[in-house]
Each structure stands twice: as C-alpha cells, then as structure tokens.
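re: ur question from earlier - yeah i can do the single chain one, its not a big deal. heres the input i used so u can compare w yours
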Amino acid sequence: MTTPWLSVVMPTHNGERWIAGALASVAEAADSGIECILIDSSATPGTVGIARGFADRINIRIYQRHDLLPWTAKTNFGVEVAQAPHVCMLHQDDWWFPGRAETARRWTAAHPREAVLVNPSRLIDARGRRLGTWRCPLPAGGSIPREDLLERLLVQNFLSAPGIVFPRDAYLRVGGMDTALWYTADWDLYLKLAAVCTFFHCPEALTGFRIHGDSQTVSGSRDLVDFTGQLRVVLDRHAERLQPARRARILPAAEASIAVNVALAAAVHADYRALPNAAARLARLGPAGLRLYLRDSRLVDRLLPRIKAQLTGRFARAPAAGSAMALPCGVPVPAAARN
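and the output i got, formated as tokens:
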C-alpha cells in the first residue's frame, strides 16, 4: 500500500451511537490515499465493532488504548503513528460533507508542508439535521497574515476540530495537544501552529460539528471555575505574542469573550447569575470594540443554532443505539454497523 496523503485521527470513547455516521462520511470519499486512525478507550467493544465493519471501505487502523482516556492524549498518539504528511481530526460525533476529501487533496498538493487549511463547519443536531453554519472571520483565498490570525483567534476559537488540516511535522514540533486542557487544548494547538505555519481559509463549509446534550462541553462546563480556567490559561499563554498596540486593542474583547462564554455555559445549566457581568463587559467595549468582538467571536453563528435547537427540542441527548439517525447525503452504513 502506498503512503497515504492524509491521516484522519479519531479519538473515541463509548462512541457507538455516533461513530457509524462519522466513518460513513469518510468512506463516501472512496479515496484509498486516506487512512483513519481510531484510538478507542471504551469500556465495551461496541465502538470498535462498528469501526471494524468499515474495514472493507476505509484504510483503517484501530488501537484499543484504555490507558489513554483524555481525547487529547489519544490525539497525540494518533498523530505520532500517522503515516501521512498531513493530518486532520474527526471526533466520533462529527462528520465530513461531500467534497471535503477532494478539496483537502487539491490543497495539500498545491501548498507547502508548513501550511494549514481551515474551513467553516455546519452545526448539526443529535440526529444530523443542520442548524446553521459556524464561519471563520478570515478572508478567503491567499494566506492569512500571522498577526491578523493571532489577534482574531485570541478573541475566540472559531476553528472547529473537524475543519482543519495541518502538517504532521508541525504538530509534533509544537508539542501537540496540552493534555491538561480538556476543553481548550485545540484552541491552544491552533495558536501554537499559527506561530510556525501559514494558514489558508477555504470558505466552503465542508465539515459537520455536532451540538448535543452529551457533548464534553456541556458536561464539563458544570464546573465553572475549571471551565473559566481552561479559557484563561490559553489567553494568558498567547496574548504576549501580539505587538503591544494590537494587544491593547484586542485584550478587552478577549476578556469580554471569556465572560460571555462562561455566562452562556452557566445558562445551559439554568444558572443565569453570570449574564449581567457578561453584558457589562460587552457594554464597556464601546461601539468599535463591540464590532471587533462580534466579528471575531462568531457569537451569532454559535448561539442562534443552539437557541434553535433548544426551542425545537433538538438539543437532545444521543438517540438510543440502533435507532434511526440521519446520515449525510444518504451515505450507506454497513450492516455490521447498524446493529
């Protein structure tokens, strides 16, 4: 078998309710140059059993690693054993839309190894129905100036995990994921990659990011002190990389972003006490600062789909194993994966 051009790293844990959709979306590309590396820590064999049902359609390697519980540790391992020069992540509850593989292949062939491709993601609910689009506040086409990328990314992580393709060597050189960060490790990674790589933005939404009641963000945000610390450490770690004038302009919006994110996380659990503080932070930004915040935070893109899901009853927990679930564009699922 020839060396793959893309490695898809998939950290999984008790993912039998989702994994068939994720793997089916990759299988639809029918590209033998893509390898999937699935690192599973589940207590039961369900996830691995479903994944093995795709072995005749996907070049897949499965590692059962009960010693690697955090998704960050599994991702680091997956990148280490990856054989392709470029890597992307696909979590068990996300998926690809048609054209994702073809676009990534064209781009990796045309750009140097020290380049990163990012694209928006469509937000989908527990059953795969579309809720909206999570866009990137970046110009399309050419490379993104490093200072522009850094200042926008410091205000808010607007890059979804399935929507980024990065060089394997660069990931390893910057130290990969910080396993102490359960929520913001990917944000921290993108900021580290921004220091050594050139970013390019494809404006087409080629990936799906699922929002549902079983997500780690929802469950982990119950501890607001820890949740706040996860956000705080990344901002503190990378803000000094901005030029002083830019830092002075961006920091108020970044601080307001943390306040808003914490307030919204608390509101998910019916705790609304932090909302007045978040509103006050936004008010103090003034018109110019508020425009900057709204541009970079993608607040509307992130919030409206969640409100829509709540109002329509679609912000739900995972459907029961074996129940009907929408898959992208009618992708067939192997019989072994349906059981």
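Residues 41 and 66 are 4 Å apart (CA to CA). not sure if urs matches, ping me
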